[in-house]
Structures are given as structure tokens and as C-alpha cells.
């Protein structure tokens, strides 16, 4: 190994490669590949009796990295810990110092907000020691989240569904989505009529809107009747100069929101692209809640604007960070070189870079100026007025870089007491809209506004609630409804019924049934954990720890003393209560009670009691498209009529139709065949026979060979032929013909194979 005087350790190999280009031959730059120590994946690993002391370990996949870094550190005169300057980066530096057993006198901590030659060399000239307050804030978050997850998740496994997880931030995010969906379901739209008119002055047609909505159809018709012989008079004209100011340069959350709005990127995608741009030295650090800009960046941006657009487009601006305790970095996200208009290795990186570049440059440009004109037009025999509005862009300012609506909406030349001609009036029925569902971007904004989590946690949080089955990102098809429209033209009133689509949504976050049941359970037994105010208070305490104002173990102790008694109380909750069982009524045939409830695999129907009975109850799925809280007794009885006898195969075997966990199917003996999208209540014998025949043909093609008096067979699978005995699967070598194998050869292949994991499939009766 070649010896070098200085060892610089960063988190990622991409960053290491970029930095190594800036430093001389005396520097070796290596990567830790992220964290090199953490709490073990299994077990609590926190000593609650010893002041919540965490027990860290080096994961197996990091041991070789740690050993290599140890060897390099021993040969170096100075070790420079150059992880990011946020709590996570500070913790990485601290863990490195512990795992590598670094001596304080030969260890220096350096930080930088951009990977440029000047920034790296300036950091080398200004080293510091590890900020233990930032480390403690990270430890407090890690310990807190482990305590919540380790103690709360098993309760959810027992009471709701195995495999669920709970987290301090993720549970609040899920609750926001659940609460919003319930608002939408319970929303009752207000119905009224919007009235617009096409008017004409000096040959130019323009549009005006009535200054109030009309209550109902009768009022709309009555208004149009009254307007048959009216004179319109310009009553007032108001010109209002308006200014549009540019937004601050990006923070992590505003970048996530704007990239979603303008580029259609997911939060996870945005952060991955930004990470690569940062590591290659194109932008400053991308995890920040600060809108501050360095003096050098401001100066470079000012010169660029003056040289390329002129002095009148430049306006120096300094933005105040919303979060007074911003800790994650000290500068906004910006290009490292303002003169570089393009950067990135692929089209998406380039798009994101250009968005960041435009936002930065626009933030130091003058406002766009418009002139808004509002004209009030009186109706001779009515108390209401028409309002016409127009806008003219007088100076584009920052819009020349950042874009935006530059279209002029110009009104004709009008004077007070003018009498515009009435061409037609349209009174159209309108429905008020429910609150909007959350998208990834709007959820980020809500979490930030509520002070929940940190910008760096939003992407993994949103990813976790989707991967855990709480939330689905979906497109919803709209429904159609009739709307009434009245029009007045040439003194004739026409009534029309039109259709419009409503309720459609794209890429919105929808809660699953698991999310709703879990949220209700947590709200009842762990209200503080899913309370937005409590969660925001925890974030403030973490800030105080990072500032050295609060001892982290004291904060954890206070939390745990409130939290743990809730665990004990929740353990006594009955399964019946948690499942949200709703009695629909008795089965008319046998008097058994029928419940709609939440089960292991989602919402379901149950006939019969669980407790105090020797016979197990019957179960059935909900009807398609029907919610747990809306299913009726009649619908439930119909579902219990399954399985339905459809008919017989050509060989005389019975065909039954049913609905299972994976949808509708038919069953012949032990063979199950999906019938999607057909209905088990209406599928015909002919249709069922054909589907069964198709299944047999597919199975025949799959079966290559079966050995007599043995469970061993050779099958054709999606990844090629293989041997199986029902317990083990063994791949067949590529140079071996499957048909040529004898039983002994098949047994030898199976003896070397691992036991296949069992899959438990529950079928409804």
C-alpha cells in the first residue's frame, strides 16, 4: 500500500473521486459508503436501565471497509473526516473516529457546502473538532425512533396485521393522508350557478363574470329572463399596478415540491438526482432548510445578470429562512458555478440542474410588473354587476429566466358610462370541490409547515409508508354527473343538460384499509405519537439538543416515561375492537350474526362468532368496490352464497366459482383458475370450461417429467427448467437436457438445493 501523509474520508465514492481531483499527491481520499456503525437490525440494542445507552455494531457488509480504512488511517499523519455538515454527517464522522480508534491529535473535522476546489481547500485551512451536540441530536432521533418502532410495531402485529411497522414521523404522515381521505368522503358539495357574459365594445369581444353566484336553477332562469331587455353601463374602471416577486432559492422541501410540479419527479427521484449533482460538484449540498446565500454566490450572480440582461434586471435580495433553528446546512441549494447554464450526466439531471439554476438566478432579479384593470358593469334592471378583468405585463423581470404566465389578458378601451353590447349569457351549474388529496409534493409541504421531521427524512418517510402498504400512489378515474346550463342569446333562453367528469386524480396518495385501521388504533391508544403538535415539539427538542441546550438522555427519558404505559394499556385491546367489527344483522337462514370487519388480509365479512364456539366462523370478502363502513346485510348475504356451482367440465367434474384473496376464481378439484375480470355470480358454464381448458394446456406445457412413486418432478418455470419435490427447488444446469435426467440425478440436484420458503395462502370459504 502506498503511504500518503493525509487521509480524507467522505461518505460516497462519487464524492471521493471528485475531491481527489482537487487535492495534491499528499492526499488520499476514501469513502466510508455511508454509516459504518449503527444499531443492529434485530433487537432493541438500547440499555433502558443504563440511561438509554445505545449499543452500536459494525454490520457485516461494512467490516471490510472499516478494516481497509483502519489500515489507511494508521499510515496517515492526519485523518480528515469530511462527511456532510448535518446531524447525520456529524454522526458518521463520530462513528468513524470510534470504529477506527482515531487519535484526537491526528484527527481533523472539515465541512463544506459545495464540492469545488476553493471550497475544499478552504475547509482544509479551517478544520474543527467533531460537534458532539449534533451527534447527540442524531443519536436521540435514532434511539427515539428505535424505541417507538421496537415497542409499538409488535402491538400492531398482534392487533392489526403481521409485518406492519410504526414510526414517529411515518405514522403522522399516514394519519394526514387518512384524515384527508375521510374529509373527501364526507364532503357535501355546495351547488350554485356561475354566470358569465360575452360582451362587445368597438368590435372587440371580452368576457365578464357576475359578481355573485346564483343559488339554484330557478334563480338562474329568472336572472336570464330579466336580462332579455337590459342596458349595460360601465360604472367604474380601476387600474391596479401589481408586482410579482421571485421566490427564494431552493431548500430541500421546496426543491422537492417544484420538481414535482414542473418536472413530474417523485420526491425520491429528485433527491437521488440532486445527490449525484452535488457529488459531481455541480450544486451545493442538497439537504438544507436554509435560504441563505454566500457572498461569493451573490456577487457571481449579480455579475451574470448585469452582463447578460442589463442592470435594470438586477435586484439584490436576501431571504430569511423560515425555520429559525435551521441546522441542516447554512446555504440554499444553488449551482456552484453560475456561468454554467447546463450540467448533469443525463437528461433528468440536466432538467433538475436547470431548474436549480433558474431559481437561483431569478432570486436576484427584479420583480415582474403588471397592470391589472377591473371594470364594473351595471345591469339596468338588476342589483348585481358584471366584473371584467384584464392584465398587461409591463416588465417581465425575473420571468425572463424562471418562466411563468406572461400572457396578456387585454380588455378593449372602455370609458365610464359606455354601453357594451350583450352578446350572450351563460349560467352554468357548479359544484364546490372537496379538499385536494395529497401528492408527494403537497405532503412534503404539509409536513414542513407542521414542523414534522426534517427535509432529509421526507423522501425515505414517503417511500416507507408506500412500501409498508399503508399508502398507494394511484390514479383515480373520475365519475360523471349531469350539470344544468342556461344560455341567453338573441333574447332566447335555452336549457341544456351536460355531463362533466369529477373526482378524477393523478399520482395522488391514497390510504389503504390497513392505514385506516392502524391510524384509528394509534389515535385511540397512542394519541400523542400521531399528534402533529407533539411530533413538532419533539423536533424542537432535537434542535435544542443540537444546540447543546438539552441533554439527549433526559429528553428520551421524559418521552419514554409517557410512552411505555401506553404500550401496556394497548396490549389489553381486544381483537374485536381493533378489527372495527360492525354487526350487519343475522343470517336469515341460520340466525348467525354477520359482521363486517378488518381481518389479517384486509376488510372482510364474518358469519358466526369467534369466541365461545367450537365451530369456526365463515368468512367472505367484501363486494368489489364497497367500503367496510358501507357494506349492507343484503350484500353480505349475497357474498356468503359463494362458492356458486357453475356446472361441470366435459369430464363431469364440478366447477365452483368463488372470490379469494387474489380475486374471483373457479375451482375444479384442486385446480384454481383466475377468472378476472369475470364475475363469479354470472360466469357461465361455457366460459368456465374454456378457462379451465386453457389452464390445463398451460400446466401441460409446464410439466416436463414426473417420476413414478415419487413427489419429484421436472417443471418449466419463468426462469427455466427446474427439479422440485414440493419442498426444494433445484435449477438444472444449462448444458443438461431436462428430459434426459433420471430420478437419481434429480435427487442429487435436490440434495444440494436450499429448502424453499413456504408461502401461506388463505382462501375464503
Describe the protein's architecture and organization:
This protein is α+β, with helices and mostly antiparallel strands. It has seven domains: 6-130, Rossmann fold; 142-186 and 437-470 and 512-570, Orthogonal Bundle (Topoisomerase I, domain 2), CATH 1.10.460.10; 191-241 and 369-431, Distorted Sandwich (Topoisomerase I, domain 3); 252-362, Topoisomerase I, domain 4; 575-639, no CATH class; 644-702, no CATH class; 707-751, no CATH class. The chain contains 21 helices and 28 strands. It has an eight-stranded antiparallel β-sheet with strand order 9-10-11-8-7-12-14-15, with helices on one face. Helix 3 (87-99) crosses helix 5 and helix 9 crosses helix 11 (347-362). The radius of gyration is 34 Å and the shape is globular. The N and C termini lie far apart (68 Å). Mean pLDDT is 89; it is low at 758-765.
Amino acid at each position: 500500500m502506498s503511504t500518503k501523509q493525509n487521509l480524507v474520508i467522505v461518505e460516497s465514492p462519487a464524492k471521493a473521486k471528485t475531491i481527489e481531483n482537487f487535492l495534491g499527491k499528499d492526499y488520499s481520499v476514501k469513502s466510508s459508503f455511508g454509516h459504518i456503525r449503527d444499531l443492529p437490525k434485530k433487537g432493541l440494542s438500547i440499555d433502558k436501565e443504563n440511561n438509554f445507552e445505545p449499543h452500536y455494531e459494525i454490520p457485516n457488509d461494512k467490516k471490510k471497509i472499516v478494516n481497509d480504512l483502519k489500515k489507511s488511517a494508521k499510515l496517515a499523519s492526519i485523518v480528515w473526516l469530511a462527511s456532510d455538515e448535518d446531524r447525520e454527517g456529524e454522526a458518521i464522522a463520530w462513528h468513524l473516529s470510534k470504529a477506527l480508534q482515531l487519535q484526537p491529535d491526528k484527527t481533523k473535522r472539515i465541512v463544506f457546502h459545495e464540492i469545488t476546489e476553493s471550497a475544499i481547500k478552504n475547509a482544509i485551512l479551517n478544520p474543527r473538532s467533531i460537534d458532539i451536540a449534533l451527534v447527540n441530536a442524531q443519536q436521540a432521533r435514532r434511539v427515539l425512533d428505535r424505541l417507538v418502532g421496537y415497542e409499538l410495531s409488535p402491538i400492531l402485529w398482534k392487533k392489526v396485521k403481521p409485518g406492519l411497522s410504526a414510526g414517529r414521523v411515518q405514522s403522522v404522515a399516514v394519519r394526514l393522508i387518512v384524515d384527508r381521505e375521510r374529509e373527501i368522503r364526507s364532503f357535501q358539495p355546495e351547488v350554485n350557478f356561475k354566470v358569465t357574459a360575452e360582451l362587445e365594445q368597438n368590435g372587440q369581444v371580452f368576457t365578464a363574470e357576475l359578481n355573485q353566484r346564483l343559488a339554484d336553477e330557478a334563480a338562474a332562469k329568472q336572472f336570464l329572463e330579466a336580462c332579455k331587455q337590459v342596458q349595460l353601463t360601465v360604472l367604474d374602471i380601476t387600474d391596479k399596478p401589481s408586482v410579482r416577486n421571485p421566490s427564494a432559492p431552493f431548500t430541500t422541501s421546496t426543491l422537492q415540491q417544484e420538481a414535482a410540479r414542473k418536472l413530474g419527479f417523485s420526491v425520491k427521484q429528485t433527491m437521488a438526482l440532486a445527490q449525484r449533482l452535488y457529488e459531481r460538484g455541480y450544486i451545493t449540498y442538497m439537504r438544507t432548510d436554509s435560504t441563505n446565500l454566500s457572498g461569493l454566490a451573490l456577487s457571481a450572480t449579480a455579475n451574470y445578470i448585469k452582463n447578460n440582461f442589463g442592470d435594470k434586471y438586477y435586484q439584490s435580495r436576501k431571504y430569511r429562512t423560515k425555520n429559525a433553528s435551521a441546522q441542516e446546512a447554512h446555504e440554499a441549494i444553488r449551482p456552484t458555478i453560475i456561468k454554467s447554464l447546463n450540467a448533469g450526466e443525463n437528461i433528468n439531471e440536466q432538467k433538475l440542474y436547470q431548474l436549480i439554476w433558474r431559481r437561483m438566478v431569478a432570486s436576484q432579479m427584479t420583480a415582474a410588473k403588471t397592470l391589472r384593470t377591473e371594470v364594473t358593469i351595471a345591469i339596468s334592471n338588476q342589483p348585481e354587476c358584471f366584473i371584467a378583468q384584464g392584465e398587461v405585463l409591463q416588465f417581465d423581470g425575473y420571468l425572463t429566466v424562471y418562466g411563468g404566465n406572461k400572457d396578456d389578458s387585454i380588455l378593449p378601451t372602455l370609458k365610464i358610462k359606455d354601453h357594451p353590447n350583450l352578446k350572450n349569457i351563460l349560467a352554468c351549474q357548479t359544484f364546490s370541490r372537496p379538499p385536494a388529496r395529497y401528492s408527494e409534493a403537497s405532503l412534503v409541504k404539509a409536513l414542513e409547515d407542521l414542523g414534522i421531521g426534517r427535509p432529509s427524512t421526507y423522501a425515505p418517510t414517503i417511500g416507507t409508508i408506500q412500501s409498508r402498504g399503508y399508502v398507494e400512489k394511484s390514479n383515480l378515474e373520475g365519475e360523471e354527473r349531469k350539470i344544468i346550463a342556461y344560455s341567453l342569446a338573441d333574447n332566447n333562453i335555452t336549457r341544456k343538460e351536460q355531463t362533466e367528469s369529477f373526482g378524477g386524480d393523478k399520482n395522488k396518495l391514497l390510504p389503504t384499509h390497513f392505514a385506516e385501521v392502524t391510524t384509528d388504533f394509534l389515535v385511540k391508544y397512542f394519541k400523542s405519537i400521531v399528534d402533529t403538535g407533539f411530533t413538532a415539539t419533539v423536533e424542537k427538542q432535537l434542535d435544542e439538543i443540537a444546540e447543546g441546550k438539552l441533554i439527549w438522555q433526559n429528553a428520551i427519558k421524559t418521552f419514554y416515561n409517557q410512552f411505555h404505559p401506553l404500550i401496556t394499556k394497548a396490549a389489553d385491546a381486544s381483537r374485536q375492537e381493533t378489527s372495527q367489527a360492525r354487526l350487519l344483522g343475522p343470517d336469515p337462514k341460520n340466525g348467525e350474526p354477520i359482521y363486517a370487519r378488518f381481518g389479517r388480509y384486509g376488510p372482510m365479512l364474518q358469519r358466526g362468532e369467534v369466541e365461545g364456539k367450537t365451530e369456526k366462523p365463515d368468512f367472505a370478502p367484501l363486494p368489489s368496490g364497497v367500503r367496510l363502513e358501507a357494506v349492507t346485510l343484503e350484500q353480505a348475504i349475497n357474498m356468503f352464497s359463494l362458492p356458486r356451482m357453475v356446472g361441470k367440465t366435459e369430464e363431469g367434474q364440478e366447477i365452483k366459482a368463488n372470490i379469494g384473496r387474489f380475486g374471483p376464481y373457479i375451482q375444479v378439484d384442486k385446480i384454481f383458475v383466475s377468472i378476472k375480470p369475470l364475475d363469479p355470480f354470472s360466469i357461465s358454464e361455457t366460459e368456465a370450461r374454456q378457462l379451465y381448458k386453457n389452464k390445463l394446456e398451460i400446466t401441460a406445457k409446464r410439466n416436463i417429467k414426473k417420476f413414478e412413486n415419487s413427489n419429484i418432478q421436472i417443471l418449466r418455470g419463468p426462469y427455466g427448467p427446474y427439479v422440485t419435490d414440493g419442498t426444494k427447488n433445484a435449477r438444472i444446469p444449462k448444458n443438461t437436457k431436462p428430459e434426459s435426467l433420471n430420478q437419481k440425478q434429480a435427487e442429487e440436484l435436490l440434495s444440494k438445493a436450499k429448502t424453499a420458503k413456504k408461502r401461506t395462502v388463505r382462501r375464503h370459504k
